[in-house]
Amino acid sequence: MSISTSSWLRWVILLFLGLVIGHTVVTISPVPNWLFPLPTAAWLGLAQWRRWGIKQQPPGEPPRKRFIWALLPLVLWGIYVYLVDNYGQADIGALFFHLQAGIAQHGGGERNLIAVIYTSVMLLVLVAYTWLIRQDLRWRRWDPWLAAILLIGNPVFYTIGQRSAAVVATPGAWLEQRYVAPTILKAPQRPPNLLVLYLESLERTYGDSEKFGNAYADIKALEPKAVVFDNVQQMDNTGWTMAGMIASQCGTPLIPAGLLHDSQFEPLHQVAPGVDCLGDLLKQQGYRLTFMGGASKAFAGKGLFYEGHDFDQVFGRDELAARLDDPEYLNSWGLYDDSLYEFVSDEIRRQDASPGPWAMVALNLSAHAPEGYPSQSCEPFKDDYEDADILYAVKCSGWLTRRLLERLQAEGLLDNTLVVVASDHLTMRVSAWEDLLADKRTNTLLMMGNGLTPRVIHKPATTMDTFPTILEAMGFTIDWHRAGLGVSLLSTEPTLMQRHGIDELNRYMREETALQERIWLGETPPNQAEENDAELEQQAPVATPEQP
């Protein structure tokens, strides 16, 4: 018995939609990937039982075209699934910020191909759903209701709607009321140098040797000589590179500029111009400031941020690649970490030869999702890991960082220097994703040198607490042990995390507009100063900070 063309087409379309449904279910839910066929089979079973897709037209009614309501909600779901599949979460704040700050010269070319594939599949979904609507009268009737369900149930739409409601409602100012403008009250007689090493996506969760072997072992090897902060969690709007650096250097989450930006169709010209950050304070104390990163400084406003906050030198891919002995030794983002760390070492030697304190901030690339960019010098470790295993990249990142610090220490370049080793944010979706999600996730943060007594501090914190902690670890006395929304973890003062918990902080974050105005416009809402003073009086310090 032959199968008609229309029957064959019907089942091809239904199978395609079933495969898309199966992929969606395992991507956005805890359902393991190996159960992928079950949602597909369930869809096909329902289709056979209900005879979906068989042409139905009421007698005497000529076929007519109707507006298909669910097409836009389906597109939004396609965006959501793409974000979750590639990044582990749909961070709308990150999406908005990168659109405004600029995504030119980004790396990760493999994700471009994935985006093309997703776009093509999404177009086919729209065609397939349109065919189903045209064929089946029942689906035509269900379409408006399905559109409403898809729209209301989409986290992307929910987040946009919630943020829009916050803009038009009474201005949210819960975070703003707790913001303390960073102020140095007293400096040490001999201010120390500062070296901050951001390790891309290298979260402390990798330290679980039962799950991840010795991938994190080189960072753990640094801990006996360091103050280790083992409970640094991730608040909303601090979960990508620029947001993580701003949180840890300015003490604020990076709320995208949104409508506060002077032109919605051009890149930003400033990043967080309304708040003082680490660079602003150290420049006032006479520091020479340098940033070095393997990726382009043009990406996501990185150069704008550092140049706008008083850094004297800002080096990215374009500036450093010209110095390479082998100009072809680059990855899709930029320099490999072994090359970057050589330039960091050279710059520290140059700075240390001049009088006065210096500060170096460096951002590496090795463990960047999804597969990482291990350097050639890490190849001796390669046989211990499978291809495309992020743990190889994590191992490489930690080993190169440890080797850099040991080399600088041996040369005496870290004398009178505070060293900070930190992940910029928790990693996005990688090969070890399920294992990372199985337990509580925390960021890497450890500090050593400048007379600090090695110990482990378990205080619940966010990356915003890094900013005042660095200042007090350097020996500076700061107002109320606070800077921005952060609280020094070297003091006994409770952090916002301790007082309120991550869920409440994130809830207030979604409603906040007053802090957004401060970050981008430098404006404090009327009567805000008085409210801040009252808040501080109610939470007056109960103890002096612990001495380094």
Describe this structure in words.
A hairpin with a 2-residue loop joins strand 13 and strand 14. The chain folds into two domains: 5-168, no CATH class; 178-257 and 269-506, Alkaline Phosphatase, subunit A, CATH 3.40.720.10. It has helices spanning 5-28, 37-50, 71-87, 92-101, 109-135, 137-152, 155-168, 209-212, 217-220, 241-250, 278-284, 302-308, 317-321, 337-352, 390-410, 433-437, 466-473, 496-511, 514-521, 528-538; strands at residues 184-186, 193-199, 227-229, 232-233, 288-293, 313-315, 358-363, 417-423, 445-448, 455-457, 461-462, 477-478, 482-483, 486-487. The chain has an eight-stranded mixed sheet with strand order 6-5-7-2-8-9-3-10, sandwiched between helices. The protein has a two-stranded antiparallel sheet with strand order 1-12. With 548 residues, it is an alpha/beta fold. Helix 1 (5-28) crosses helix 2 (37-50), helix 3 packs across helix 6 (137-152) and helix 5 (109-135) crosses helix 6.
* Unreliable spans: 540-548
User: How much is the radius of gyration in Å?
Assistant: 26 Å
Main sheet strand line-up: 6-5-7-2-8-9-3-10
**Can you identify the CATH superfamily of the largest domain?**
Alkaline Phosphatase, subunit A
CATH class of the largest domain: Alpha Beta
Task: Profile the largest sheet.
Answer: 8 strands, mixed
Mean pLDDT: 88
* Shape, per Cα inertia axes: globular
Which CATH architecture of the largest domain? 3-Layer(aba) Sandwich
Tally of structural domains? 2
Task: Find the count of extended strands (DSSP E, 2+ residues).
Answer: 14
- Looking at CATH, which topology of the largest domain would you report? Alkaline Phosphatase, subunit A
Helices, by number, come to 20
N-end to C-end Cα span: 85 Å
Strand fraction: 5-15%
Region (Disordered): 521-548
GO molecular function: hydrolase activity; transferase activity
InterPro entries: Alkaline_phosphatase_core_sf, OpgB/LTA_synthase_biosynth, Sulfatase_N
Protein name: Sulfatase-like hydrolase/transferase
